């Protein structure tokens, strides 16, 4: 993968991904996207449009068949729909594992872990086990573990999709607050239109067969926002219409 010189944290140029060789399935084709420093960008689209595939390539978990992805040497951290906590470790142990791989001195693990749990509003939870936590609490621990990696770019693959509405709304506020306080650049995958408008500075609409970007929508609404805000609902409705058009074209 060639390297581009850019000041933007994420630059995706002409990216395509084919599975199964030259005659296989084209998952993505001709994707161009630049994400600026501190920007919160949501990738929106139906299942099969390549959102998660694109995120995996930005994370370095996969390679594009064509095109280039440049992060300018910046570190990334990934959050998934499943918190993926190690059940045999405590909350503190899960976070300390990330600190270890980030090169943090062992003498600082407990202090940093306590600080990160304060950030995600789970103070004093170090000794608890994952099975003792609610789904929302597990995702807070997963977020703390991601932050432990001192990444500048946070990649989130439908991290709140399995949560109830009340917990999801609370975590929307938390990730919005943390991203703002830390100046994080966020690339967030979702199929929930209102969630995209609620969180994103910009919403990237993708279509399937093959996956491509078909629309970019800026969301110049003040923060904090709520899912039920009338303007969030109005903008979400317009994007929903776009997704309906794309779904019809894919059939």
Automatic annotation (TrEMBL):
One of its GO terms (molecular function) is ATP binding. It comes from Amnibacterium endophyticum. PANTHER family: ALIPHATIC SULFONATES IMPORT ATP-BINDING PROTEIN SSUB, TAURINE IMPORT ATP-BINDING PROTEIN-RELATED. It comes from the Bacteria. Signal peptide: none annotated. The keyword ATP-binding applies. This is ABC transporter ATP-binding protein. SMART domains: AAA (SM00382). Keywords: ATP-binding, Nucleotide-binding, Transport. Residues 10-233 form the ABC transporter domain.
């Amino acid at each position: 993968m060639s390297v581009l010189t850019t000041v933007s944290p994420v630059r995706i140029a002409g990216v395509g991904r084919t599975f199964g060789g030259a005659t296989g399935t084209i998952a993505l084709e001709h994707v161009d996207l630049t994400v600026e420093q501190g920007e919160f960008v949501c990738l929106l689209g139906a299942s099969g449009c390549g959102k998660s595939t694109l995120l995996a390539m930005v994370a370095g978990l996969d390679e594009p068949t064509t095109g280039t992805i440049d992060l300018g040497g910046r570190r990334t951290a990934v959050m998934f729909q499943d918190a993926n906590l190690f059940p045999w470790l405590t909350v503190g142990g899960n976070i300390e594992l990330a600190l270890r791989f980030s090169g943090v001195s062992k003498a600082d693990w407990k202090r940093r872990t306590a600080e990160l749990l304060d950030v995600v509003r789970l103070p004093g939870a170090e000794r608890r086990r994952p099975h003792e936590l609610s789904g929302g609490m597990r995702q807070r621990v997963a977020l703390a573990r991601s932050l432990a990696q001192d990444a500048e770019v946070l990649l989130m693959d439908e991290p709140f999709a399995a949560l109830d509405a009340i917990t999801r709304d609370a975590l929307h506020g938390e990730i919005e607050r943390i991203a703002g306080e830390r100046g994080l650049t966020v690339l967030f995958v979702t199929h929930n239109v209102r969630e995209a408008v609620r969180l994103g500075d910009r919403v990237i609409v993708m279509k399937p067969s093959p996956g491509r970007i078909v629309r970019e929508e800026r969301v110049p609404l003040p923060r904090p926002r709520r899912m039920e805000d009338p303007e969030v609902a109005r903008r979400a409705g317009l994007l929903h219409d776009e997704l309906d058009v794309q779904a019809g074209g894919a059939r």
